[in-house]
Prior knowledge:
Blueprint: H1 2-27, E1 34-38, E2 42-47, E3 52-57, E4 66-72, E5 77-80, E6 87-89, E7 97-103, E8 106-116, E9 120-126, E10 134-139, E11 144-149, E12 158-164, E13 170-173, E14 178-181, E15 187-193, E16 197-203, E17 218-220, E18 229-234, E19 242-248, E20 253-257, H2 266-272, E21 278-281, E22 289-291, E23 294-297, E24 305-309, E25 315-318, E26 322-324, E27 329-331, E28 334-335, E29 338-342, E30 344-348, E31 351-352, E32 364-370, E33 379-385, H3 396-405, E34 408-413, E35 422-424, E36 427-428, E37 444-448
Parallel strand pairs: 3-8, 11-16
Antiparallel strand pairs: 1-4, 2-3, 4-6, 5-7, 7-8, 9-12, 10-11, 12-14, 13-15, 15-16, 17-18, 18-19, 19-33, 20-37, 21-35, 21-37, 22-23, 22-29, 24-25, 24-29, 26-27, 27-28, 30-31, 30-34, 32-33, 32-34, 35-36
Amino acid sequence: MKKCLRLSILPLLFAAILFSSCKDDAKKGNPNPIISVTVEDADVLLDQENKRIDILFYKYRSLNAVEATFKLVDGASMYTPLGKNPVTLDLSGVWGSTIVIQTGDDLVYYNVYGEIDYPLMGMNLTADNGEAIGVATIDQNLKNITVKFRNVADLTNVSCEYIVSKNGGAMVSPETTTCTLDMTKSNMVTCSSTRGGTITYTIKPASSPKDNVPAGWEEVTDRNLPSYMALYMTNDFHGNNAYALIADTRANFSVMSKGIKNLMTVPQFYEEDPTATVIINGSATDDLIVVEGQIVNEGTSGSPTAFGVTKYGNTLIGGTGWKVSWQEAKQNDSVAYYAMYGTNALITDGTRSGNLNNVDLDARSAIGRSLITNDDPGYYVFFVSEMYNNSPGVTVKQVGDIMAEWGCYNAINLQGGSGSSMHVNGQPTITPQKGLDAHKSIGCVGVLK
């Protein structure tokens, strides 16, 4: 009896296994559920292995609403977005978009990317040593190229490299991808590609710190400065001699000090470090000094006006947001690696201070920083003006006004009077109030190299 029971169960087990196998087969979908993708005025590359779809356009258009039609295998359907075909996709971001296809009981994910193939895809601007010196932004709609330089360079002879389309891109005029251009005036470049056609772009005159030179200032060319610095002077800044040095962010800012109890003159500071390109005065008062992250002098003010940089070179400047302890000095959440005090803020985030002294005349000095943007890291401005012999001196407000003319977005006033001094490559600019051999002893100096 038991033997007969075992024999009768075997067919049932076989049927169950067969049914289960067929049921599993029914659940499996096609691993490549998309047959093709169609997008108007575009080529589409379907990569089944990597589940990637690249949509390539050949003329200017917005990528935030691309309509694509998917041809699917039998039984497959759109899962995300649900039940829609054609599908409208936002491909404007670098991460593209994702669609999901249901096939059987499986979900298959595809990443979709959009790109517009232009004859000219990019432009590099370099110095003689190959170092990048600027940023070129191409407006493919208006066919304009805007150039912004990071440094004070010779804009009449800039080395350029054009990046053309990978899809049959070629230069028409000039005929090579490398050339030199005079960036102080407009230039034209013509490129072509297989599907994008032939397009002529206008390269607009370059902007640089030298574009902000106020009227009446002339460049001083005998100080043997690096290419990222330029010195200017005038002998008629409200009847005074005055100097302004501009430097891009390749210049490194630091502070030198032996503490408030060990005052030194600017020439003595230069003897301590003859590699300093520019030295500008601090003051002899008891206030903030930070050198290599160490508080040399905490000062009497818990929230000073100061100029400094973080360990990574980010600028700290102004009269607000500072917190000073024996351990560190911070402006908002940024810790100062170098910092030196000032007397008051001249310009804060593009707005000039409204209560600046416009009465008292004296020699003056100041530090400023231009606006920093994603494609323009800006530049420093160091300023001094003289009060000597027949020079009457200037007011603090007049210093604030000229710093704004130099393009400063933030600026602070340093000590004026007999302490005002700036040396460039070891040589003085203005004459101190008591003569060249009568420099005032001060507690620190700001340095650019």
